[in-house]
Amino acid sequence: MNAFLLIIPLFLIRFGLLKMINKDALSRAALFAPLEGGEKVAYLFYQLSNAFIILYLVFLKIQTKPPLFFIALLIYFLGISVLIISTVNFAKPEQSGINTNGIFRISRNPMYIGYFIYFSSCVLLTHSILLLISLLVFQISAHWIILSEERWCVNKFGTEYINYMNKVKRYI
After folding, report:
1. Which of 81, 98, 140, 167 is the most buried (most CB within 10 A)?
2. Cα separation, 7 vs 10, whole angstroms
3. What's the domain range around 42?
């Protein structure tokens, strides 16, 4: 079975579900905070690794040998679940514009966590070392994107966001 099928739920969640819940949230999700210095390089690596992961899956096959297959499927569905929950919560920010509801009470970046879990399952389902390396590049560069987003949120929301940062961890 072609591994590109693994990506279909990602597109449905990221674009379809988000647009269905809140069209404005779709455009908010597409915005990146202003980048400084090395963050620009991280952004380039983030976009390239993201594109590579998605496109490279076209050339891979899902490996179905138990027990790794079943473990990877559990992780895959966990990733999908985190992405759905975080997408629904992202689409409905508080009046101030900050997302602190639902899963955002546990993590300031649940969508990035969902992407990591989701893409990790793709690595396990395909047994691809190259995909694993791409995922690591993606995750390291995503950390720099997150730092720029946090700086932007502090500038935009001030004390309210700083208080949120003090209560909720960046990841988990």
Report:
1. 98
2. 5
3. 3-12+36-167
